[in-house]
Amino acid sequence: MASSDSAGARGLWAAHLPPGVGPDNIDLAPAANLTARMVGHWRREPTQVFLADVDGRSLTGAELDDATARAAGRLAGLGLNAGDRVLCSCDATLELAIAHLAALRLGLTVVPTNTAYRAAELAHIVSDAKPVLAIVDDRERAGWLREASADLTVLGPDLAVPDSVVPSLDEATLASVGLLAYTSGTTGRPKGALLSHANLLASAEAVRLAWRWTAEDRLFLCLPLFHLHGLGVGLHGSLVAGASVLLSPRFEPDAVLDTAEAGRATMFFGVPTMYHRLAASPRADALARLRLVVSGSAPLPTTVQQAIERASGARVLERYGMTETLMLVSNPYVGERRAGTVGLPLPGVEVKLDPVNSEVLVKGPNVFAGYLGRPQADVESFTEDGFFHTGDAGVYDEAGYLILVARLKELIISGGYNVYPREVEDALREHPAVLDAAVIGVADPEWGEAVTAFCETDGSVSGEALVAFVGDRLARYKRPKRIILMDSLPRNAMGKVLKTELARE
Ligand code: MLC
Ligand code: AMP
């Protein structure tokens, strides 16, 4: 049955939800706010470990309740009040997780920020979000943040300030903004997506049901906590489900496989680049010990999914999400996981395809309210009947599963990180020897797409010098993996660069 509407999707999910839960009787916001839901679990199971790290440290429910309350007291002691913004740019450690949860318990808005960002990228976020506090784990970034705003208080993730009176916690409303997550548009500077407690809770709850996530689960989480995959799905998802997390600040295939082999985790979430590297390991069979392995943030090549399955028998479950919408479509846990598809619209999520250009349009309690201070972008991002334009084009297969066939937005996804060609082109054009530049993503077995630049220069600069020049200005993962110097870029009669021709080079 081909499904092009949410009624069809509801019918399909009916077969895949836990017993007693029907697509029409789901409460996707089963608490006063996100942290009330998490704290409820900690208080019911005070001796259960909810957070642990690869160095052997751990926190039980009672300890997590206490540590996050104490950290919230420190934040309140600094004068922060509900609604204030806190920029967080740190590696994934227990200290960061505690500071993050403390900020949410106090009703603050967290602005998760990539640790690879350089001075200009940070300055833009500071000037747009106007955070009162920045939590950062690196001296160079701390310096750039102070330069960006003299008023900004900058602390490490251990929040090394005196304890203070702990105010009332977990009082945010569902409409309160929990996260302000920056994401680039095809033009202009990154925009801040306002994600409410209701959005965050609804998305975590939808995947909890869809993936049969329970308190018995432990997620090995080595995704960064400054993007929604690691933060919203991994950390929030686990804690909303009453499950636990084993945190690692970096991805190493052997660490994932050791953890799986030792039975220290039941779940792993990764981007396709991670599965590509895991599939290359002679020990990939250890993945069979996990209950569930999930891929997202970029297309999972069928060849990679098959390689993992051949090596371990594990069938990677692919799902589709976005900063603005959190999780929207997923393959089912029980039922067929169809390779090359992202699955079925999650419970509570309405998906339809634009009849003209096949764009995926989405509506639901998971979808954000709008961008900070961008009324024009808000108008352009939603249809008149309230569906959000994802910028991805899709079709349904014969079983009603969604296949993403193209990106309508000019976006390169490299190793799960988004790179906007325009940003890299602008950085290249700043070099005096560059007359013009065009940047595209070229299919790459490891990165999915490799940032590739074509530069028209005056002949006085090398490709290596240009890569270094971009690396000084932008996060390093945005640097072109390859630069091709040309006397002139191919253009049409109007003078517009023909990127489709460059893709054939
Ligand atoms: C690192 N490098 C990259 C890169 N990551 N280059 C291109 N693309 C990337 N994604 C570069 C570094 O700049 C460095 O270059 C070199 O690779 C080694 O750095 P590293 O830090 O040691 O890399 P590594 O640990 O191997 O990182 C690879 C990775 C990482 C796959 C583990 O990229 C990663 O964690 N990706 C996950 C991104 C993510 O969480 N996305 C979710 C977005 S949310 P040099 O030259 O300086 O040595 C979203 C919604 C949804 O999309 O649906 O989930
Ligand atoms: P971001 O803005 O970082 O949240 O990235 C969101 C984009 O990642 C989506 O619009 C998609 O283009 C892409 N994406 C996420 N998950 C998948 C997936 N499973 N397959 C293909 N693309 C994906």
Task: Report what the structure shows.
The chain has 505 residues and is α/β, with parallel strands linked by helices. The chain has a domain at 411-502: GMP Synthetase, Chain A, domain 3 (2-Layer Sandwich), CATH 3.30.300.30. It has helices at residues 6-14, 34-44, 61-77, 94-105, 119-129, 139-148, 197-210, 228-241, 253-261, 272-279, 302-312, 375-381, 421-429, 463-473, 499-503; strands at 49-53, 58-60, 85-89, 109-112, 133-136, 153-155, 177-183, 191-196, 218-221, 244-247, 267-270, 292-295, 317-322, 326-330, 344-345, 350-353, 359-363, 370-371, 388-396, 402-407, 412-414, 417-419, 434-444, 448-457, 482-486. The strands form six sheets. It has a nine-stranded mixed sheet with strand order 2-1-10-9-11-12-13-14-15, with helices on both faces. A four-stranded parallel sheet has the order 4-3-5-6, with helices on both faces. Strand 19 and strand 20 (402-407) form a beta hairpin. The longest helix has 17 residues, at 61-77. The protein is globular. The mean pLDDT is 94. The site of adenosine monophosphate has 19 residues, from strand 13, strand 19 and strand 20. Adenosine monophosphate (AMP) binds at residues 183, 228, 296-299, 318, 320-323, 342, 390-392, 404, 407, 413, 418.
